[in-house]
Amino acid sequence: MPKMTLSHFEAAFLFSVFTSVVLGIVTKRTDRERLQYGLYTFGMFLVALFGIGWLMFLGHR
Amino acid sequence: MAPVRTVLHSEKVAKQKEEKRPLPPVGVWAPAVALGWLVPGGGHFLLKRNGRGALLMLCVAGMFLCGLMMRGAMFQPQTGDLLTTLINTGGFIGDLCSGALYLLSVWLGYSQPDTAGHVHDYGTKFLVAAGLLNLLAVVDAFEIAAGRKD
């Protein structure tokens, strides 16, 4: 099994992609709603990722 | 104001009706739930939701494989203080929810000690999260099989 070395950002990005797709599929009833919710969840993951990243950066200054 | 109240009331009534719907016989939903647990997305394939099944399989298996390649650790059930029990037993249940992926990797001898480092740490979380996402997929398969969802 090959070894995978990712940065914090890459690992969190990958986590967001997989989780958003599954949440979109299981929570909504139509394909359009699924797509919208998946994109919304992914966007929120990214907002949280950058937001918390900046908070930690500023907190360490 | 009145139309808003009417809409809210009708939503509440619909929700109550849905809650009161009796559970269908075990034979109707058990095969989809069992296959969904064993093979991620398998329950959806059984219920002829091939597109959704393929996406679920891709995401859960992809996440689990990423966890393995990051050399994440598998949890073993442990008892002790509340936090130890919660983390280790909860983590073990999360790992177990991946079904055949977990069983196969343990059977083939995957055993990674819990080492320090952010990649290993992410790997451990990926393995547990893959199981929890599969649990959501199983619940979705149950709802489809029970006729509560398309």
Number of helices of chain B: 7
Through-space gap between termini of chain B: 33 Å
Say how many strands of chain A there are.
0
Q: For the record, give the distance between the C-alpha atoms at the N and C termini of chain A, rounded to a whole number.
A: 40 Å
Strand content of chain B: under 5%
The gyration radius over C-alpha positions of chain B equals 19 Å
Overall SS class of chain B: mainly alpha
Q: Could you name the ranges of chain B where pLDDT drops below 50 across 5 or more consecutive residues?
A: none
The main pleated sheet of chain A reads as: none
Evaluate the radius of gyration of chain A: 15 Å
Main sheet overview of chain B: none
Specify the oligomeric state: heterodimer
What general outline of chain B do the C-alpha atoms trace?
globular
Q: How many β-strand stretches of chain B? A: 0
Supply the helix-strand structural class of chain A.
mainly alpha
Mean pLDDT of chain A: 94
Largest interface: A-B, 19 and 27 residues
Shape of chain A: flat
Mean pLDDT of chain B: 89
Fraction of residues in H or I helices of chain B: over 70%
* Number of separate helices of chain A: 2
List the helices and strands and how they pair.
The complex is a heterodimer of chains A (61) and B (150).
Chain A: H1 8-27, H2 31-59
Chain B: H1 2-20, H2 26-38, H3 42-46, H4 50-69, H5 82-96, H6 100-107, H7 118-145
